[in-house]
Amino acid sequence: MREVTASHNGLRLDGVLNIADRRRLSDGVVLMTHGTFAHNRMRLMTDLQHLLGTRGISTLAITLSLGIDMRRGMYDVDHPHHHKHTDSLDEIDAWLSWLREAGAKNNVLLGHSRGGNQTAWFAAERLEGKDVKAIALLAPMTWSDTRSHEFYRRQHGMDITPVLERAQALSSDQMLENIPYLFYPNSSASAGSYLSYHGEDPRLNTPYLMPKISQPLLVLAAEADEIFDDLPVKVNELACSNLQFNVIPGADHFFKGQFGVAAANTVADFIESVE
């Protein structure tokens, strides 16, 4: 594995590239996007890179910048939030351009958790003209207005509505101070950042995006997922001929240990089936 960098909006983006034995970039790469405020060296990303590599599949694990040059490790929650959920789409695009210039073809997009939603959003709206042959989503994010309000009340002991109304009354760059933000009890964030993560947009619900994706699509659910436990119900309500849906028995949201092996093998089988 080796570190690589791409450039976007004046920032250096951090990536880890693993070319499988006896493979070349032109054989294709799996572009992997992590979950909320995580990074490309988190355990799941590292495990997937190793396990897919043993199956002859090359990978590029990226770290979303969240507005920070060459960001590494978990996002510092004390840092003010100016980034937006959809900034990731531009950075996925930047990495696909990097792969194209490096000679990679027949690539696959993979995302976990929030990164699964961001990957699906990109695939649903921005994939035209891109050299991407398939999409794989691991425990992708679900959303509903009701669950969003319930989460905020359970996590922070308050109603989200007044904070949303404050954010909506401000310009995108104006700051909200001392507010609960996602899992964090006390943050500062621009109104645009807050609304991009907490606002009401059906595209935050990954199953909503799935029928809009035309490429072969794999969705993996974790049976013991404590975060997006409604994923199986929502996916089973869909009728998508290009969709392969699997549940990893016993797995938690992060597919730890043996469940990571099961997830990697399912992803590898899927990729080989669309070659």
Structure, explained:
- The structure is a single chain.
- By secondary structure, this protein is of the alpha/beta class.
- The protein folds into two domains: 2-142 and 205-273, Rossmann fold, CATH 3.40.50.1820; 144-201, no CATH class.
- Helices cover 34% and strands 24% of the residues.
- It contains nine helices and ten strands.
- The chain has an eight-stranded mixed beta sheet, sandwiched between helices.
- The longest helix is centred in the middle third of the chain and has 16 residues, at 87-102.
- The mean pLDDT is 96.
Which structural class should the secondary elements be placed in? Answer: alpha/beta
CATH fold call of the largest domain: Rossmann fold
Rg, Cα atoms, Å: 18 Å
- Strand arrangement in the largest pleated sheet: 1-2-4-3-5-6-9-10
Number of domains: 2
In total, the number of strands is: 10
SSE topology:
Elements: E1 2-8, E2 11-18, E3 29-33, H1 43-54, E4 58-63, H2 87-102, E5 107-112, H3 114-125, E6 132-138, H4 145-156, H5 161-168, E7 175-181, E8 184-190, H6 191-198, H7 206-209, E9 217-222, H8 231-236, E10 243-248, H9 258-273
Parallel strand pairs: 3-4, 3-5, 5-6, 6-9, 9-10
Antiparallel strand pairs: 1-2, 2-4, 7-8
Helix pairs in contact: 1-9, 2-3, 5-6
What are the main properties of this structure?
Rossmann fold; two-stranded antiparallel ribbon; 2 domains; 9 helices; globular; 34% helix; eight-stranded mixed sheet; 275 residues; alpha/beta; 10 strands
